Amino acid sequence: MTFSGTWKVDRNDNYEKFMEQMGINMVKRKLAAHDNLKITIEQNGDKFHVKESSNFRTLEIDFTLGVNFEYSMADGTELSGAWTMEGDMLKGIFTRKDNGKTLTTTRIVQGDELVQSYNYEGVDAKRIYKRG
Hints:
CATH topology: Lipocalin
CATH class: Mainly Beta
Strand order of the largest sheet: 4-3-2-1-10-9-8-7-6-5
Oligomer: single chain
């Protein structure tokens, strides 16, 4: 499947501003910008197993497309939502448990890159990963 593989963060676009909008403090933003995040994705039909490994934590998530699940971001922000497939793009719509606001995330493979985009309260950001 297209998303299956190991992806290592290569660069960020407006990521610190996005984290600031999310309410993440400056120290955590600085650390997160250099977290060396590696994502391993195993896709089997509409089921996904994702392992996120960084300098700060390792987390494994299992989800099925269209089925709500709960997720805790590295800073402790609790979310609930689901991923769906729109063409070749994974789209996640998540609601923050603390304030009810929506975080939209997409993942799409472009060549040898996985582009993960975020939108929260009018701020857009991207993290670009290289296959590896």
